């Protein structure tokens, strides 16, 4: 296992980039702790796979360094980095049995035969393929082949890091949940440094100790699932994490008051007089319907999703979502939405600003 350091790292697919916009991966300076599980989360094209391929050595960065436990590996080939990588689509040896596919990385390094047999059996049990060990990979389904890829990536215990590039794309939904749980269990048991690329927030939040949210080539926030939910540092984090995502409304803010669409509301804490594009961000969980306070709202529809109801409202032309508990009714007089002060975030040019007196 290894601590992974990204030092002044950036990458452009153009030979001579002239502006920041031409970088697929904008400057990063981060330390990823040895033995933790990270998820790289973001929409397609945000730079997740680019970063993963730089860490693995498949791609050389335009600038900066990659260090494993303080050792510069920027120019080291993939084989010398001692990592295992699992790709989006299965990579297996069709002419080999499942057993031989799983054993290949160990045999290739001269591991003891007894150890290889025991480790293969352990991994086969984890991926649910014990009864298929003697079958050839040729003819197996795509999700079965991907389970082999996952198993082969995890069979070595001495790797610096395990890298997963959207590995569950071809896995059926029930098996996805099972494999995520097993990956988490494997991490807890062996303590590998794991980096898991996904655009699926559920995968990221259930797998990782820390989620690294990327947007437009940048890391906009790295934190625990709770931190990302309660305190999104960028409006994209609020929008991307949560179902539905954070409500975001244009506002002007002065002290502990905000004005939205000509209506003034109390914020519960003071934010000074921020400049730039000012927005209020409030998750639906901290939003409620009211008959006598808050912002004027028109209820457009109500969606019952079993655990709770999602009320879709219109506030000055912006959709604002409200979550109601299961069984909670809607008053005919409810024509406004109000925000719980503890759930209100203020953003300037998409970045969260701290309230006066708020701890760093």
UniProtKB/TrEMBL annotation:
Keywords: ATP-binding, Cell membrane, Membrane, Nucleotide-binding, Transport. GO terms for molecular function: ATP binding. Gene3D superfamilies: 2.40.50.100, P-loop containing nucleotide triphosphate hydrolases. It comes from the Bacteria. The keyword Protease does not apply. Residues 4-241 form the ABC transporter domain. InterPro entries: AAA+_ATPase, ABC_transporter-like_ATP-bd, ABC_transpr_FbpC, ABC_transpr_MalK/UgpC-like, Mo/tungstate-bd_C_term_dom, OB_MalK-like, P-loop_NTPase. Transmembrane segments: none annotated. PANTHER family: ABC TRANSPORTER ATP-BINDING PROTEIN, MALTODEXTRIN IMPORT ATP-BINDING PROTEIN MSMX. Belongs to the ABC transporter superfamily. This is ABC transporter ATP-binding protein. It comes from Jannaschia pagri. The lineage of its organism: Bacteria, Pseudomonadati, Pseudomonadota, Alphaproteobacteria, Rhodobacterales.
């Amino acid at each position: 296992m290894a601590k992974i350091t990204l030092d002044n790292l950036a990458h452009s697919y153009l030979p001579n980039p002239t502006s920041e916009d031409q970088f697929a991966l904008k400057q990063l300076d981060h330390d990823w702790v040895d033995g933790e599980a990270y998820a790289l989360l973001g929409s397609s094209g945000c730079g997740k796979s680019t970063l993963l391929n730089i860490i693995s050595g498949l791609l050389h960065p335009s600038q900066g360094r990659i260090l494993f436990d303080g050792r510069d590996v920027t120019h080291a080939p993939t084989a010398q980095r001692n990592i295992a990588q699992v790709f989006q689509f299965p990579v297996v040896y069709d002419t080999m049995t499942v057993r031989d596919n799983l054993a290949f990385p160990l045999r290739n390094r001269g591991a003891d035969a007894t150890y290889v047999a025991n480790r293969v059996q352990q991994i086969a049990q984890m991926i649910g393929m014990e009864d298929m060990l003697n079958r050839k990979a040729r003819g197996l389904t795509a999700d079965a082949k991907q389970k082999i890829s996952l198993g082969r990536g995890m069979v070595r215990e001495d790797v610096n890091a395990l890298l997963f590039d959207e590995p569950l794309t071809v896995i059926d939904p029930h098996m996805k949940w099972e494999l995520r749980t097993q990956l988490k269990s494997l991490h807890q048991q062996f303590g590998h440094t794991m980096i898991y690329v996904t655009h699926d927030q559920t995968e990221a939040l259930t797998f990782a100790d820390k989620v690294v949210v990327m947007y437009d080539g940048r890391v906009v926030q790295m934190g625990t699932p709770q931190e990302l939910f309660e305190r999104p540092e960028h409006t994209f984090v609020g929008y991307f994490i949560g179902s539905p995502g954070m409500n975001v409304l244009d506002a002007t803010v002065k002290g502990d008051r905000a004005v939205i669409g000509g209506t003034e509301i109390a914020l519960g804490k003071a934010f000074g007089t921020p400049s730039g594009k000012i927005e209020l961000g409030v998750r639906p969980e901290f939003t409620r319907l009211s008959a006598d306070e808050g912002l004027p709202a028109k209820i457009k529809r109500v969606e019952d999703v079993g655990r709770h109801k999602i009320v879709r409202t219109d506030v000055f032309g912006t959709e604002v979502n409200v979550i109601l508990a299961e069984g909670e009714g809607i008053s005919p007089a409810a024509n406004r939405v109000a925000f719980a002060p503890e759930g209100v975030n203020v953003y300037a040019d998409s970045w969260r600003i701290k309230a006066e007196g708020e701890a760093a």
